C-alpha cells in the first residue's frame, strides 16, 4: 500500500522494471504495505521471490545507499544472519530511478525476500523465540559495529536520543490529558534515569526498528517458531547501541500479560550475543518506555494528518495499553529484572558488571563475607538461612540479591514503609543535608511532626517523645511507668520481645527463655499469650479475649496479695517473635 502523499505505483510497471533492469521474469507482483515506500513482492517464473522497494521521489539517496551498503556489509560479515540481500541491476547499480506514470522518477532497489510471517501475526511468543530475537539483534550489532557511512548521523525522529524533542513536537496531537500525563511520567523517568547515563553508552550504527512487523518468524525443525528474517533497514542510524535491544524489547512487551518478562527474554538473548554494560542495562527500561511514547506520539500526529492510513498507526492501541501497564511497574523493579536477565547463570560471565551504584570497594562473594564476618563481627549476630543471602538493595516491598534476583520481603525485621521508598529517601536526604541535631533547639518541623502524630491518637496519649529506636521507646515507657507508679514489676506476654537493652532483655521471654537466657527475673511476670490458633481458647470461642485476660487478672491478684503491684503491662500490638499473633478482639481493652 502506498503512502497517500505519493502517487500509487502500478504493479505492471514493477514487472516491466524487473525485466528491464534485473533480468527477472516476474510472474506476480503483489503490493505490500509500507510506511514510505511502494513495495512489491515479486515472484519470478522460476519461483524466486524478491522485494522491489520504490522510495518516494523526495527520498534521500544517501540514506538509501547506507541501507544498501549495510546489507552488503552484513552479507560479508554475518552471512548466517537472515537479512535481505541487495540485488544490483545488470549494470551494477544499487539504486535506480524508476519513472513513475505520474510524478518524478523514484529511486528503486531490489532485495531478496525472506520466508516467514511478521512476529505481529504470530501468537504466542515463546521465551525461546523472544530470546532468539534478542540474540539475532545482538549478532547484527556485533557485525554493524565496524560499519560506517556518511549518512549515518542523520536526524531521525525515531532515533531515541532525540525522543524528548520528538515527543514535544507531536505532543499537541495527544488530545486526552490522561494520556499526555502518562507520556510525561515516562519522559520524567527518561530524564532522571537515562539522561545522566547517556554519555557512558556505546554508540554505533543500528537497525533501530526491531518492531514486530520487521521480524519474520517461521516454524523450525521442532515445530517451534524461529526467526527467519530481520527486515526493513530504513530507520538505520548512528546512535546509542542499546536502543536496538530497548526497541525490540518494547515491541516484545506489547499485548503481554507480563511485559517485563517478555522484554527480559529479548534482553537476555541480546546480552548473550553482545554483552550489555551495567549502564546499558540500567537505561533499558526508560528507553523501552520512550520508544512506545515516541510511537504513540507520532501515531497521534499521523492519525490527525492522514486519518485513512491504518499502517501508520498499527501499533498505537497495544502501545498505549502496554504503557498503562508499564506505568504500574516500579522502574527499579524493571531495571533489576533486566539486570537479572543478563546475569542468569547460563550467561553469567566472570567480567559481568556489578549492580551499578554498588560500593566502589571490591565486591565480595557471599562465602568471603561469611569468612570475614567470622573474623571481625561478634558471633551473636546470627545469619539467616542455610545458604545466606547477600542482599545488595531494596525497593518498596522487594529485596534484591547480588544477581539481581528479586525477593518479596515478608520478613526483613520490621519494615514499616518498605525499602527505599523514593519519597522517604528524598525526605531523609534533604534533612540530613540541612540539619541533624538535638531537640534542645527550637525547630518548626519538631512541632509540625508532633501535631500530625498526635492528631492520630486519642487523649490522653497526645504527647510525643522522639527517640531513634524501638528499644529506646520501650526504655522510656518503662521509666515513665516506674516513675509514675513507684513500682518496679512488669507484666509481659509469653514469647515477647521488647528490645535489646539490658532492662528490655529482662522483659523479653523470647530472650530470657531462649538460648543463653537465664529465665524470668523476679520482677517480671509472664501471662498467657492470647493465641486463638494454638492457645487454650480458640478463635471459635466468643469469650476468648476475656478468658485470656482472666489469666492475667488472676496473676495480678496474686501479686497484689504478695504486696507487689506492677508498674506496667508491656504487649506488642502484633506479637512478632511469638508467631505474628493477631490479638483477639477486645483483649487489650480487657487488659488495660
Ligand atoms: C516488637 C519489638 N519491640 C522492640 C524492638 C526493638 O526495636 P529496635 O531494634 O529498633 O531497638 C523490636 C525490634 O525488632 C521489636 O520487634
Number of strands: 17
Q: Which sheet architecture does the biggest sheet show? A: 6 strands, antiparallel
The general outline is elongated
User: In oligomeric terms, what are we looking at?
Assistant: single chain
Description:
With 592 residues, the chain is an alpha+beta fold. The protein has four domains: 1-113, Phosphorylase Kinase, domain 1 (2-Layer Sandwich); 116-352, Aminoglycoside phosphotransferase (APH), C-terminal lobe (Aminoglycoside 3'-phosphotransferase, Chain: A, domain 2), CATH 3.90.1200.10; 358-436, Alpha-Beta Complex (Aspartate Aminotransferase, domain 1); 467-591, 3-Layer(aba) Sandwich (Aspartate Aminotransferase, domain 2), CATH 3.40.640.10. Helix content is 40%, strand content 13%. It has 18 helices and 17 strands. It has helices at 11-22, 61-77, 127-144, 163-170, 177-194, 243-253, 259-273, 278-305, 316-327, 331-343, 366-376, 422-434, 444-454, 470-485, 502-505, 509-512, 544-561, 587-591, and strands at 26-32, 38-44, 49-54, 86-87, 96-98, 106-112, 117-118, 203-206, 215-219, 225-230, 237-240, 391-395, 398-401, 406-408, 489-493, 524-527, 566-570. The strands form five sheets. Strands 1, 2, 3, 4, 5 and 6 form a six-stranded antiparallel sheet that branches. Strands 7-9-10 form a three-stranded antiparallel sheet, with helices on one face. It has a three-stranded antiparallel sheet with strand order 12-13-14, covered by helices on one side. A hairpin with a 7-residue loop joins strand 5 (96-98) and strand 6. Helix 4 (163-170) packs parallel to helix 8 (278-305) and helix 5 (177-194) packs antiparallel against helix 8. The longest helix has 28 residues, at 278-305. It is elongated, with a radius of gyration of 34 Å. Mean pLDDT is 91; it is low at 345-358.
